[in-house]
Fold this sequence. Notes:
There is one protein chain. The chain is mostly beta strands. The protein has one domain (2-235). Helix content is 3%, strand content 69%. It has a 16-stranded mixed β-sheet that branches. The longest helix has 7 residues, at 2-8.
Amino acid sequence: MALAMAALIAMATPWAPGASADPSAAAHVTRLDLVSYGMTVGHGRIIRAPTLRNGKSCMQLRLIIETKVNLLFYKFYMHMQESWITDASGLIAYTYDSLENGRSKTITGELRDGIFHFETVAAGQKSVWTAPRAAYAFASISQPEPALTEGEVKKYSVLDPSTCTVTERTYRGTGMEMLTVGNRKIQCNTITIEYPGTSIRRWIIADEFGPLILREEGSQPRGSYSHRAVSMDLEQPALNP
């Protein structure tokens, strides 16, 4: 069970250095249920909104997840936040912050001079990792993934900032599928993604706020997981009195 819980959160900070939200911009908020072994084990929000970074217009995608399991034989708690800042070239900044059963972990990443620099602090230990921008095609989650026709297969080198790795992944188009989210029916592009030890299926849309995964089913050595959108709303900024 613990491994499956961790797998649910392998995708989550509410800010990135140098970024500031546009106070007049609306945010698109998608709420999620997290499911493992048939149980709802947590809830999350995906918040997408325009932002400014060093005076430049960008988009920010934030993922906020809370998972809590309190069973007689097993207890687990995690709160995690993750943020991707993108411009027309792709991911330019990333932050991650989690607290899992009392253990904290943070990751901060920034693209500088063609190299992505990451710093991780976990269990009081600091480590650094770098990835040349030329070493990967795109970063997971932060950009629209390839829209493939049904049966079409392509391979890409992909940066996963949450694990500080670049892996070759196989993408396969699996056609269009209708999802029901709240009282809305939404046509999604679906793909499968495979790389060593991992198999994922995603239901994806993209709009003026960027990419959005409405549903994901995954299987990894540490367990199987699912997250599913249950509502989608456009939230206007609060007005000053």
